[in-house]
Design a protein that fits this description.
Number of helices: 7
Strand order of the largest sheet: 1-2
Shape: globular
Distance between the termini: 21 Å
Number of strands: 2
Mean pLDDT: 91
Structural class: mainly alpha
Radius of gyration: 17 Å
Length: about 150
């Protein structure tokens, strides 16, 4: 197996652990659909606005949490933007990559909703997608230097 394939496999395992096996949604032990309703946000920018307000909170722990949440949602998908075009030639085209990244991120959010692992939040998609695009742009820029 080539080095990039191994690294992609390790990245995928790490993301699976982070997104699904790290823990259940708080309070998800009761009725399934009540837990689903409590773990979903389909209102764009709701969580993002909350995190931005928390950044200026006098409570340093809340501000650090918000900063880590925002940065982490972008950074977590940077490697996806690198690995997909590095491993699959078709993913080097912007449209193909863009569609693949959106679908993968949406599938992750849907899987989190259905399994009650993590939370299904439209704002995660809003933050994850630019992270993947930044990774793709970096891959395209640096691949020309190889």
């Amino acid at each position: 197996m080539r080095r990039r394939q191994v690294l992609f496999f390790l990245y995928a395992l790490g993301m699976l652990w982070l997104l699904f096996w790290r823990g259940r949604v708080p309070g998800a032990g009761g009725e399934y659909w009540a837990a689903v309703r409590s773990s979903v946000n389909l209102v764009p920018l709701r969580t993002l606005r909350l995190m931005l307000r928390l950044l200026s909170s006098p409570n340093r722990a809340l501000a650090r949490f918000a900063a880590a949440n925002l940065a982490g949602n972008v950074a977590a998908f940077l490697p996806l933007g690198y690995f997909l075009p590095a491993l699959w030639r078709r993913q080097r085209r912007f449209f193909a990559f863009s569609l693949t990244a959106l679908l993968l991120i949406a599938l992750v959010e849907l899987a989190q909703l259905l399994t009650l692992r993590g939370s299904c939040d439209i704002d995660d998609l809003i933050l994850n997608y630019p992270g993947a695009l930044l990774g793709w742009a970096g891959c395209r820029i640096f691949s020309h230097k190889e």
